[in-house]
Write the structure tokens for this entry.
Amino acid sequence: MLRLLKILIETNLFISIAAIAFLWANIYILDLNNECFVILTLQVFFSTWFVYQISRWVYFKKGQYTNQEELVVQWFQKYPKFNEFTIYGSGIVTIILTCFLEWKTIAVLCFIGGISVLYPFQILKPFGITTRLRDFPFIKIFLIALVWSATSVILPATESAINFNERKDIYIVFFAQFIFILFITLPFDINDSKVDKTSDIKTIPSVFGVGTSKIICLILGIFYCLIMLYIMMIENWRSINSIYLSEWTICSIWILAILLQIYTFSKSENAPKWIIKIVYDGSMIIYFLALLFTKIR
């Protein structure tokens, strides 16, 4: 079982599964029509796989992985042809699937896809700026939160042709999931803080310290739990004659947040990278299962 998890992490399939799990968690929260998301689900899976494969392949080819013991480095070294095949294959499938989506969904995808693909490149090099998009001080974590929250909330909303003026709750859920992604992404920076300091990469932990970053995580977690309580109240009020979110739903999300908080304070600084990925990327899968098994309908 452990070996299977490591293979899923090495191939970036684990994060792709987490992406569609988080997508469906928000589909449940917003109570959207489940029948129109097959193509979007496949598109999100393959596009996530493509983005993570190509970004990490670029880092690998440029020798930017400082830790040669990382599983992803070992995987690229062992199977370079396979990884090239998955990059081209997932990219082609992503383009094909995108053509079958609603035009508003495609417009949003172009925006977040542009951020995701350009993330590891020196896009301002023609202007004499060699800094990669991800290396601008403190910006990385907010770009990740923007892309993931838009993918999981805005895309299903546009694909189901919802009138945003009639469903203001979409904006609240988007903001809430932006906070959640910050909450589960900051521990990655905590884990990388020593390397980032050496490489002069300015993240919140490398500049303000690990202790301060853990406090920020605590504040984000508490704030997120309160927002989700409010969301549960307004969603059930909106569907007062057919309530679909139960008390167990909010309780399970709170329990998940508490467990993540405990792990952040106790283990995030020194845990192996693959464990960090299982815990925090895997939390999106647990989040989906919590919604799946506690929603009333």
Summary: The mean pLDDT is 87. The first helix runs from residue 2 to 10. Residues 2-294 form a domain with the Farnesyl Diphosphate Synthase fold (CATH 1.10.600). The chain has one domain: 2-294.
